[in-house]
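ligand=2-oxoglutaric acid
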Amino acid sequence: MELLMVSGAIREVVSEWAAARGLDAACAELANPAELAPQLASAVRGRVEPADLGDPWAHLHQAGFLRLMGVFDPAELDATPEAFFPIPSCPGTITGRAAMLAIIGLLELEAVSYGSENSGELFVNLVTLPGEGVFADKSRKSMHGHTDAVSFPVRGYRSASFPNIAPSPDAVCLAALRNPDGVPTIVMPVPALVAALTPDHVAELKTRQFSVRSQKTFITGTKRVLGEELVEVDVEVLLETGEGTWIRYSHSSVDTLGEDSEAAVEALNAACAGAATHVVLQPGDLLILSNRTALHGRAEVGGDPGGTSRWLMRGYGLKTQELTEAQRYAGSPHILYP
Ligand SMILES: O=C(O)CCC(=O)C(=O)O
Ligand SMILES: [Fe+2]
């Protein structure tokens, strides 16, 4: 995949799309991602040679991330919001969201959200939150290596306790609107992690012996929908799948009891430093993270909320061909259960 060529084509397609309609019409189209993502992707395909496009999904899966620089114009931005949602309807957030849909379409994923996180909003602000609570605290801190929606199964697997839980996303898309202090997002691809582990540690991590709690943004929502806080027991951290070795992990949400499994988790945490690629997103950049073949995290954000503080938008993509009706919410096409 020729990243420069593809980035240039996405930039053209998105800016032409935005220029041809007003803010309200653009927002209405963004609300229908199942239509807009394939439409933007097909326009991009019309502008790059197939050899330059290559296979974006294979590229993402192999490298663990895709960085596309300068794919949208972060123009006329409001002050940085102080909540996960709503996303203000200004030109920069509209082209940023459209650019995320374009790459989700090129990856042949569906743009999805979960009813139990941020009220099912398709795109959310990742920003510094005001006040003192756990969310405010978390929003300023660094993040250790994790996959998103870690308490949900990976694609192709079912939750033992609630079989209708949809899989966690295949990809996490970040669109950068502001990053004044150059705070890096950190990617740790699975092959680099595994290379730093002993075969015994790898075998421990592939054993069904870990318990996984929900990440903070999912706790209240999963309790509401499922009637209890979701804790998945007896799951693997590393999974040998038909699509390679996958990972499901969060430093703060995965627990284990055994001495050997504890040592394997410690080895995995230690491997993160050596496996890390630091990506400093600039306004107008996209970062697509594989939520199967990489962990991701970030450095400390710090600072005050609002104003011109750090502001990323996030969206999820998933291969949904195998999804059942029960794993979705009827009438809300992109919102998955729970
Ligand atoms: O802020 C970042 O760069 C990444 C944030 C992240 O991974 C998350 O909110 O789950
Ligand atoms: Fe994340």
